[in-house]
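A.,

Following up on our hallway conversation. Structure tokens first:
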């Protein structure tokens, strides 16, 4: 739940630039932030409790060639500046991700009890390294001797006062990467922070350490033997090739949502992409399949609400057999996670042949979709491995906001992380697995979320589920309601409250079980299960109201002991008709 970033360079960098890179790691969640520099043989440490932006005033326009910074999620010790990284002890300053399992033993064996200035296990690292450097001098051998005393997980960057032009690092069971720049090296706990900075990087294995300056990096193993490492070509955000700490790619990718949204936000706020001005068009059509189609339906509401331009959504496989009746001055938008979806590409070729302008939205910038369209809007969600798409859906919606020139959007990574880490859905998921039929209902934008919720649930559980606009229940669907059915309603807009409450009461009177996902404060007896969503100013609710549905599908899948990454009969990218 922490983030690391560092720079060692021949040129000076603004500390603000380093913190901006750290902001790309906000998805991990954090409660405090710190940064340190080593200049003129002096360590300078700046810390703050709260968000990264709270540190900006303290660093002003300061620059350095040697920088390490860190966001902390409290584990050992309360949330306060003394517990915030970097930890500065003697001639050493460190940042650390992970947990030192034997820190209490080290406090006793090294007689550190009266020397501690924080409540963190991480401080023991700085104490141990400083002690070893004092005994045997500053060297890689001494660094390794100190690290060898540690048990647990760690990614560590260390600045040393007598080694101004260098940074030490080591990795064990916690990610740490080294990026190669023209004028030095950058370090991070996640490749996402290297975007736009490097063309190649090194991935450290457990038990590998290094010393780097602005010109050279040397790698060692824990026997102090120099090792050679091959650099890896850096491909933008192609970093999701392992499940890491998670049990499945799907779980990981749901947990990636805050990161992916922050990433997309960062790029579109600093975008140089050539995109059309939608106000130049009289009509807009969005064409997609599956989850991409549901993001298109949300896009319709965004475009019509913000720009007042008529917008129509089409399922690609149906659109192929429809006559195109639209104004000549129309824009066609095609959405595909892979950029290779057969039906979507065929629809694109049909539209291109008729001479209409086209725009693609895709998570794969080298795909056919991006090459054929007149314009391309990349999604910066990172590689998605699980067949059931999650984070790309959220990021596609964010990209559509920027297509509509709405840039006053913020992403509260902590709110999203807390939502994902919570166990609010556990009991409801159990009820879903016991029900003969699950019905998802909503109104307008919320009905789109209900449709996507059903798709996720069906994909992952193979069970019977349907979605309806809440007002449609009385036009046929109420006939299937009984004590074995569960209806889940979503309500994020107060103007829809009466419609939703009426639908819930219709279900209750027929002995159906009910659940409500809502941003509103409602009485406890409104439904059998209630999941409350927190609203955040400048973060549109439709960016994250889908998360409880994604989690319900995943948790139900686990209860049923099914494979969440590879649902039967389905493929990630559908490249056939």
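Then the amino acids I'd put at each of the 577 positions:
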């Amino acid at each position: 739940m922490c983030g690391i970033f560092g720079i060692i360079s021949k040129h000076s960098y603004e500390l603000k630039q380093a913190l901006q890179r750290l902001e790309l790691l906000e998805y991990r969640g954090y409660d405090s932030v710190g940064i340190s520099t080593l200049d003129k043989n002096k360590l300078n440490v700046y810390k703050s409790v709260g968000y990264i932006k709270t540190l900006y005033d303290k660093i002003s326009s300061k620059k350095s060639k040697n920088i390490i910074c860190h966001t902390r999620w409290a584990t050992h010790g309360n949330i306060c500046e003394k517990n915030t990284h970097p930890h500065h002890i003697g001639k050493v300053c460190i940042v650390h991700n992970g947990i030192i399992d034997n820190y209490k033993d080290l406090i006793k064996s090294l007689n550190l009890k009266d020397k501690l200035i924080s409540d963190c296990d991480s401080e023991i690292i700085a104490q141990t390294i400083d002690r070893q450097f004092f005994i045997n001098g500053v060297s890689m051998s001494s660094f390794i001797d100190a690290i060898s005393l540690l048990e647990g997980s760690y990614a560590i960057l260390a600045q040393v006062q007598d080694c101004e032009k260098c940074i030490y690092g080591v990795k064990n069971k916690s990610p740490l990467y080294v990026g190669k720049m023209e004028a030095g090296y950058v370090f991070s706990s996640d490749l996402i922070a290297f975007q736009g900075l490097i063309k190649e990087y090194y991935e450290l294995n457990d038990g590998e350490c290094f010393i780097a300056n602005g010109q050279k990096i040397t790698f060692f193993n824990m026997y102090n033997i120099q090792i050679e490492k091959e650099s890896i070509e850096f491909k933008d955000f192609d970093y999701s090739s392992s499940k890491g700490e998670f049990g499945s790619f799907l779980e990981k990718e749901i947990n990636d949502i805050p990161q992916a949204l922050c990433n997309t936000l960062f790029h579109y706020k600093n975008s140089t992409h050539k995109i059309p001005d939608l106000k130049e068009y009289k009509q807009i059509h969005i064409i997609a399949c599956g989850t991409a189609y549901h993001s298109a339906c949300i896009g319709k509401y965004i475009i019509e609400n913000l720009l007042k331009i008529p917008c129509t959504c089409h399922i690609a496989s149906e659109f192929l057999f429809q006559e195109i009746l639209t104004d000549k001055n129309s824009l066609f938008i095609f959405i595909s996670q892979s950029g290779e979806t057969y039906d979507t590409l065929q629809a694109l070729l049909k539209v291109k042949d008729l001479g209409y302008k086209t725009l693609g939205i895709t998570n794969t910038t080298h795909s056919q979709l991006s090459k054929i369209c007149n314009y391309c809007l990349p999604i910066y969600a990172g590689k998605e491995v699980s067949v059931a798409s999650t984070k790309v859906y959220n990021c596609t919606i964010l990209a559509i906001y920027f297509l509509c020139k709405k840039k006053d959007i913020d992403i509260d990574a902590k709110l999203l992380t807390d939502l994902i880490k919570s166990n609010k859905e556990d009991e409801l998921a159990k009820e879903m697995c016991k029900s003969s039929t699950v019905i998802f209902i909503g109104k307008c934008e919320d009905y789109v979320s209900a449709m996507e919720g059903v798709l996720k649930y069906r994909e992952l559980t193979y069970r019977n589920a349907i979605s309806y606009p809440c007002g449609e229940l009385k036009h046929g669907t109420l006939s299937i309601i009984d004590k074995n059915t569960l209806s889940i309603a979503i309500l994020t807009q107060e103007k829809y409250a009466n419609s939703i409450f009426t639908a819930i009461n219709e279900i209750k009177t027929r002995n159906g079980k009910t659940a409500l996902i809502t941003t509103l404060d409602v009485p406890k007896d409104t439904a059998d299960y209630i999941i409350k969503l927190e609203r955040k100013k400048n973060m549109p609710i439709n960016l994250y109201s889908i998360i409880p549905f994604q989690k319900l599908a995943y948790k139900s899948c686990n209860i049923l002991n099914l494979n969440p990454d590879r649902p039967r009969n389905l493929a990630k990218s559908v490249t056939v008709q």
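DSSP finds 17 helices and 25 strands in the chain. Curious whether your intuition agrees with the design.

B.
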